[in-house]
Amino acid sequence: MKPAAFTYHRAHDVRESIELLTELGEDAKILAGGQSLAPMMNFRLARPSALVDITRVTGLDYLRHGADGLRIGALTTHRTVETASELAGFDVLPRSAHWVGHYPIRCRGTFGGSIAHADPTSEWCLLAVLLEANIVLAGPRGQRTVPATEFFHGFFATAAEPDELIVEIHFPEPARQAALTEFAQRQGDFAIVAAAVRLSSVDGQCTGGRVVLGGVDPRPLVVDISNALDGAAVTESTWDAVGELVAGQLDPPTDAHGSGAYRKQLAATLVARAFAEAAAR
Ligand SMILES: Cc1cc2nc3c(=O)[nH]c(=O)nc-3n(C[C@H](O)[C@H](O)[C@H](O)COP(=O)(O)OP(=O)(O)OC[C@H]3O[C@@H](n4cnc5c(N)ncnc54)[C@H](O)[C@@H]3O)c2cc1C
């Protein structure tokens, strides 16, 4: 398949990107790594009238780790995150990157593109919600920040306006005990279910935790496990119990990839597995 006709525009900086988006109207789309948009255009699931290519915009490709957390420029590739070292406290990001597509996709696809695309099983979307990241948007009305917990509105739908550009994803708080795991039918596929968790524990006792699931809802789903972990022992049986508790709260959809019941079972297993991995950190 070939895409429907569109006009092509190359932006060189953030200001020019915003000017082009404003001028071209809401049927224009940003082109970053093209790893989601190009297939969607080829299948004619997306028919933008114009593309604003931001791949040569300068100053949006960075990982900055400092006292105020981790800042990731929107054009940073998945591969750059995967190979980053010295991200103490945020190393769940490089550790999870291998789940994102295949190597060539990771070399071209961008962190900002994944967040903007808002696939509810996207690893970066899940981790942004898990770690309570902030999404920084630039537009004709200036810059604004939206918490990741409010950014995702549904399948491929976000709080970003058509004339806004994601410029940065800011992770304010490190999470030393965090893990993401998932199940997909083939290596590199989007997950059927993915589980991202963080844990806090002291002297073999849990003091808190957080669970975010993909593949069970149109958005990355935060599951309430309040109090379930407080004071519980750091053991396999705790993780199994939390997995069951999480699954009991889900009502996932049935589709060609699996039934709702299958997804619930996967969620129980993956949550337990993710907590075991987080606890080992
Ligand atoms: C075979 C295959 C398997 C894949 N598997 C996975 C997977 O397992 N997990 C996963 O997470 N992803 C997967 N992907 C998708 C991949 O991660 C993409 O890189 C990512 O979804 C989009 O990033 P991109 O830079 O390619 O964005 P593009 O494809 O260029 O754009 C995607 C969307 O985001 C918008 N956009 C891009 N950048 C910005 C920005 N800075 N501000 C505002 N809007 C923007 C575009 O307008 C478009 O609507 C897969 C892709 C393929 C082809």
From TrEMBL:
Taxonomic superkingdom: Bacteria
Pfam families named in the record: CO_deh_flav_C (PF03450), FAD_binding_5 (PF00941)
KW rRNA-binding (keyword) present: no
UniProt keywords, alphabetically: FAD, Flavoprotein, Oxidoreductase
An example Gene Ontology molecular-function term: FAD binding
Boundaries of every FAD-binding PCMH-type domain copy: 1-176
InterPro entries (UniProt xref): CO_DH_flav_C, CO_DH_flav_C_dom_sf, Diverse_Substr_Oxidored, FAD-bd_PCMH, FAD-bd_PCMH-like_sf, FAD-bd_PCMH_sub1, FAD-bd_PCMH_sub2, Mopterin_DH_FAD-bd
PANTHER family, per the entry: XANTHINE DEHYDROGENASE SUBUNIT C-RELATED (PTHR42659:SF2)
Name of the molecule in the record: Carbon-monoxide dehydrogenase medium subunit
Upper lineage: Bacteria, Bacillati, Actinomycetota, Actinomycetes, Pseudonocardiales
